Amino acid sequence: MEIDFRKLKAYLIDENDQEADQYDIKRQDLTKEGEPLPKEWSPMKDDENVKIVELKASAAQYKTVEQHVKNTQGNVQIKKILRIQNKTLYQQYAVKKRDLEHHNPKGHTNELQLFHGTGAVAVPQINENGFNRSYCGVNGTMYGKGVYFHKMASYSVGYAKPPDGNNNHHLYLARVLVGVSTPANSSMAVLPIKSGSRPFDSAVHGDIYVIFHDTQAYPEYLIIF
């Protein structure tokens, strides 16, 4: 077979070096394809980057998130749960996840589901642009100048303020790439070097994790209570 990339044609050659058949071919730029999106996402248009989907209370995802809140002592009355479908943020996160899996020890837990409470005013920015470190300091920097997440909903609920005009409070259940962590401290603005020239992936204090790289967290679900 011979391929003419200029004409985007493939020619099937017989044993006598004669053209037996030809086919149209399609050039595909794999660098633009990005990471595959989650199968459970609702369909999105090609030119649609962000879609907010309200989960039905009867849906399996809703029940899973609801149970996770209950299991971590989040004693709140959930009004609704939204799934954040952001193509750009998800693909950036997926690339970073592969990077951590490549560099960290095989079998190491690089990813956790963690909570992040926030005021209503920050929600549109987070849905569109993710957890940005420029927001840090709003609720203190006791464990470094990064973005804070917690294993327990009961802790993060305390930071889900102020509410919006309808008295709705906002709590994210995010996927966070904690990787290999180092002890957190209040003066930490960047992570120290772990080995060679590669820094640690996050800082930790008890059940609090702090990340310093914006692509290391994806706002998967928004819980409104």
Automatic annotation (TrEMBL):
Principal EC category: transferase
Molecular functions per Gene Ontology: NAD+ poly-ADP-ribosyltransferase activity; transcription corepressor activity
GO CC, one annotated term: cytoplasm
Entry keyword set: Glycosyltransferase, NAD, Nucleus, Transferase
Gene3D superfamilies with a match to the protein in the record: 3.90.228.10
Subcellular location: Nucleus
Pfam families for the chain: PARP
EC number: 2.4.2.-
Gene Ontology BP, a term: negative regulation of gene expression
Matches recorded under InterPro entries: Mono-ARTD/PARP, Poly(ADP-ribose)pol_cat_dom
Residue ranges of every copy of the PARP catalytic domain listed in the record: 35-225
Protein's recorded name: Poly [ADP-ribose] polymerase
Organism: Biomphalaria glabrata
Gene name for this UniProt entry: 106074346
